[in-house]
Amino acid sequence: MASHTAKKGAARRARSAPRQDNTSGRSEAGERPSLQSLRERIDEVDSKILDLISMRGQLVEQVGQLKNSSGGAIYVPARERAIIDRMIAENPGPLTPEQLASIFTEIISSCRALEHLPRVAFLGPEHTYSNEAARERFGSSVEFAPQSTIAAVFAAIENGRADFGVVPVENSTEGSITLTLDLMIDTPLVIIGEIRLPIRHALLSREGDRAAIRKIVSHQQSLGQCRMYLAANFPHCETEAVASNGFAAERAAGDPMLGAIASKAAGAAYGLQVIAENIQDVATNTTRFLVIGKEATARSGTDKTTALFTVADKVGALYEALSLFARNSINISKIESRPLRSRPWEYIFFVDLGGHREDPALARALSALKRKALFLKVLGSYPESRSDAY
Asked: For residues 62 and 65, what is the distance between their CA atoms, to the nearest angstrom?
């Protein structure tokens, strides 16, 4: 497959390679092109790109008119995933898949705004990792709505003050964000996407003087992700958990004795100096975010389903429930339990399953589980993060 893709890309490059001639200012065959001729060719290509993007925008406006008349959804995660996956599959180079995905995310974002400017809530303030994840998924052409808490993100969507939300749910180092899981139990919202964002922490302060630091502030998860670094390098410093890394950076900007753990982008936004970079204890530190909204999303072909259920407190009940997925060849990529707040010492189980709830095999397994479980709720079926595809 890789060889076929390489040949396909080489053939496309050969077809699209610029022809060199004297009339256009380019060099004759066999001669090295001049800087000026290359720049002229780039200008020609840019004009063609502009024409094609404008044509795409006009087509999207027509799509928007059809959606308005039929009540169709403006944001269709499966469709956007399919577009970017196709572009990556057809990519002849030299741009990497990540670079190509970033370019088309912004093209799609700009064109989507011609239909409707989405309002996206996230755990704020600006320059948090949640903000970065929201921008990676939706692009720049949206209205971002920072919220003070994760619960406020849910409330903003439920109350109609935002169309979508982005919330952290799991970190590869520190585990699940239990508040997000608890909020998913009772909400009418559904999961429509996920984002896996590499987390690279920096230690920041107003003056950049590590000797002046007396206290280090950050979100509880970030403090946990840098626990060993802090113990080895700042054992004398007190730590304090705050609502977000963005808020930590904001506080550090006003106190020279405070250090903040946050992203370099957050530090730049608040005028902070970098004391140390990449201070997370695990180099591959990654946070998974959920995209939540009001409407379920269609199948993309590479989907994940998240559900929760409870079973009777008896021997073998959980085994019987989980075996339903094995019998239908459904992979369980994650299972986690949370205590039921209304019934002490009883638990609710969250599972991530391979496939979409409309896939026949998964539909059979969920139907059988519904008959066995005391309670079952499908939180959403959605396209898997593309990070695994790279």
From this structure: 5
Per-residue model confidence (pLDDT) at position 29: 57
Give me the CATH topology for the region 297-389: Alpha-Beta Plaits (3.30.70)
- Spatial separation of the C-alpha atoms in residues 165 and 157, rounded to whole Å: 7
Judged by DSSP in three states, 205 sits in strand
CATH class, domain 41-116, is mainly alpha
CA distance 134 to 67: 24
Q: At residue 193, what is the residue type?
A: G
Angle at alpha carbon of residue 71, lines to 67 and 72, rounded to 5°: 55
Digit-coded pLDDT (tens) for 214-230: 999 999 999 999 999 99
* Phi/psi at 105 (5° precision): -60, -45
Q: Which residues are catalytic?
A: 287, 289
Looking at CATH, the fold of the domain delimited by 117-199+286-290 is given as D-Maltodextrin-Binding Protein; domain 2 (3.40.190)
Q: Which of 378, 353, 336 is nearest to 176 (CA)?
A: 336
For the segment 75-128, what is each residue's pLDDT rounded down to a tens digit? 999 999 999 999 999 999 999 999 999 999 999 999 999 999 999 999 988 888
Assign domain 202-277 to its CATH superfamily: Periplasmic binding protein-like II (3.40.190.10)
Integer Cα distance of 293 and 283 in angstroms: 32
